[in-house]
Amino acid sequence: MFHSQSLQLRTPQPVGQLHMETLTALTMDIRGFSITLCFLICVFPSSFGLNPDEVERLGRSSYIAAVYEHRVVLTPEPHLDRTRAAALRHMRTNLDVFEEQARRASQQGVQILVFPEDGIHGFNFSRSSISSYLETVPDPRLESWNPCTQPGRYNNTDVLQRLSCMARCYSLYLVANMASMQPCPASTDPPTCPSDGRWQFNTDVVFSSDGQLVARYHKQNLYFEKAFDVPPSPELITFDTPFAGRFGVLTCFDLMFREPAVGLVERGVRQLVYPTAWMNQLPLLAAAQFQRAFSLGAGVTVLAANVRSDVLGMTGSGIFTPASALAHHHSFQGQPEEGRLLVARVPVLDPLWSGAEEEAAGGEVEDVGGDGSSWSVVESSHCKQEENNCLASTPSPSPCPVTSSSPTFNSSMMYDLFTFARLPAVQGQLRVCQGTLCCHLQYRRSQPGGGELYALGAFAGTHTVNGRYALQVCALVRCAGPEATSCGQEVVEAESKMDFVLSGRFETPHVYPSLVVSGVKLEQPRHLDIKPTGTVTMAHSNMAAGLVTACLYGRMYHLDRV
Fold first, then answer.
1. Is the dihedral of CA 291, 506, 42, 12 positive or negative?
2. Are 312 and 342 in contact (CB under 8 A)?
3. Which pLDDT score, from 0 to 100, does residue 303 have?
4. 77-125 pLDDT, tens per residue?
5. Mean predicted confidence (pLDDT) in 496-516
6. Among 26, 148, 232, 441, which residue is least crowded by beta carbons within 10 Å?
């Protein structure tokens, strides 16, 4: 994402078989018209700092990861203070579930297991009522501690001890989220110490396979969490493993902001563990949708574990690489409200990892299968365009002629006022602009649904509801009904399959593509091209199910505080 790059997705092949400066023609036959895109392809080695030998080695190296989507056992009255003994009884009910899932994961050879945010203690505490749940978590960068084998070093560390022994017993790296506290000096400049003399943090902890505490991360971007404090300064936390190299740590709402997410990627971290308690919001920000979008847009692996709660609309976990959604899960109301363990073999992406080579066995997945496609990072330049075809060309300030005109209208999508244009026919071309952003679409419905309305939308501005962040978004969405005002509302099912090319010229390099089909299933775009000029193009054809959303979600991090 931070370079000129194009993802060519095709039949699996060893990465080492890619050739430099290969002239490739990508032909898309879209039922009646054929578009030829001509690219000069060359492997772009600086993308991950890899030479061809390293690419080939990492392509043959893998590890087994698991994430657990957890139905949290909640306290019925989180606003009331309780004793430490009562808090421990509550947390043990969730830790017992974690223990069983760690046992199951270990039986499948899992080397790293991620549990969700708030999975041990739950939600909706006040600063006072969470006090009995807090534990002191020392900084593993400053001291070495194994809570399982050294339980007497600190008082009131029952949760840390249980997690440490869990990792040690089942011989796997374990990532969990908990509530922690840390005394703070009364005199700080600027003053950041709360009046009760301590910070209270939403905290991720990581244990090695022998139970050692190896990482501690305090969540930076809180989401209406009055029990917790923002850490005095942003943290970029990583830990190293013997089987896959380095991982970065972040939590839930952090994925929407520059720090720590982009900060970690810019420092070369290509593998992220991600506990979350994410409330789904279609059509643009369902949990698994954005996890996958960030993985694809940033070129990283994301191991994402969410909470399962029908009341709060929380579900959506997965194991994602830039090449594939190896495993993902999204539940619906009416389905059993239960946990789900996802397991997959994952390619190593850490460019500095020098462990023993391990032959990958393919996408071994529990419950949900990956798409099996391979990927390469390449640099492209367009050759002569056949008949100046708009689908084959890169959008520019002087766009291709719009063959199907459609008047624009405004409608709210996720609390932002988008400019939309209807897709008026079975096939055509559209251009929609808002501010400096113009979105371009060429499409053909390969399997039209009965009366389904679709619209192309553009938004360039600052989102201000339940968080403040600057956006540039191009989105093709299925509307909830036949009225224009229904465009932007939540939709989970669709019948219309569509071949399309969606593009826009963004004023940010941070663009996250997503493609959601009926049933909130994720598909991998057949083609993704990101240019240094800011033009991003996503193309897809032969959908497995009806289109719900195709989105290019641009984050203007530098404007968040303007």
1. positive
2. no
3. 99
4. 999 999 999 999 999 999 999 999 999 999 999 999 999 999 999 999 9
5. 97
6. 232
Smallest CA-to-CA distance from 3 within 533, 424, 448 is with 533
Return the amino acid letter for 219: K
Nearest to 472 by CA among 483, 487, 462, 485: 462
- 29 bridge partner residues: 34
Round the CA-based radius of gyration of the chain to a whole number and report it. 24
> What are the helix (H) ranges across 43-83?
52-59
Cβ atoms 559, 408 nearer than 8 A: no
Residue 528 has pLDDT above 80, yes or no: yes
The string of DSSP letters for 380-400 reads: --B-PPGGG-GGGSPP-SSPP
Structure tokens at 111: 């080397």
Token pair recorded at residue 536: 């991003």
Locate 520 and state its tokens: 């909130």
Q: Which residue has the tokens 């420092």?
A: 267
Confidence of residue 312 (pLDDT cuts 50, 70, 90): very high
Which residue carries 């495993």 as its tokens? 327
Kind and range of the H or E run holding 84: helix 84-107
Question: Dihedral angle at the C-alpha atoms of 494, 498, 501, 505, nearest 10 degrees?
Answer: -20
Quickly state the pLDDT bin for 188 (edges 50, 70, 90).
low
Q: Give the active site residue among 135, 148, 219, 523.
A: 219
Which SS3 state, helix, strand or coil, does residue 201 take? strand
| pTM of the predicted structure, to 2 decimals | 0.84
* Residues forming beta bridges with residue 555, ordered by sequence position: 471
**Spatial distance between the Cα atoms of 33 and 390, rounded to a whole number of angstroms:** 12
- The helix or strand, by DSSP H or E, that contains position 418, with its residue range, turns out to be strand 416-422
**Which residue carries 């939403």 as its tokens?**
202
* Per-residue pLDDT, 383: 26
d(CA 407, CA 432): 9
Residue 307 has which token pair?
């909470």
Please give the distance of CA 555 from its chain centroid, rounded to a whole number.
14
E strand or H helix at 90: helix 84-107
Pair of tokens at residue 560: 């968040």
Is residue 252 part of the annotated active site? The answer reads: yes
Catalytic one among 69, 117, 364, 379? 117
Which one, of 287, 135, 123, lies nearest residue 203 by Cα?
135
Instruction: Tell me if 277 sits within 8 A of 118, measured CB to CB.
Output: yes
Mean of pLDDT values over 317-328: 97
- 148, 165, 252, 551: which one is catalytic? 252
Amino acid at residue number 331: S
Alpha helices by DSSP H, 138-282? 158-170, 263-266
Q: Contact 217/204 with Cβ under 8 angstroms? A: yes
- Asked whether 370 and 325 are in contact (CB, 8 A), the reply is yes
Q: How confident is the model at residue 190 (pLDDT cuts 50, 70, 90)?
A: low
Residues near 47 by Cβ (< 8 Å), separated by ≥ 6? 3, 5, 299, 377
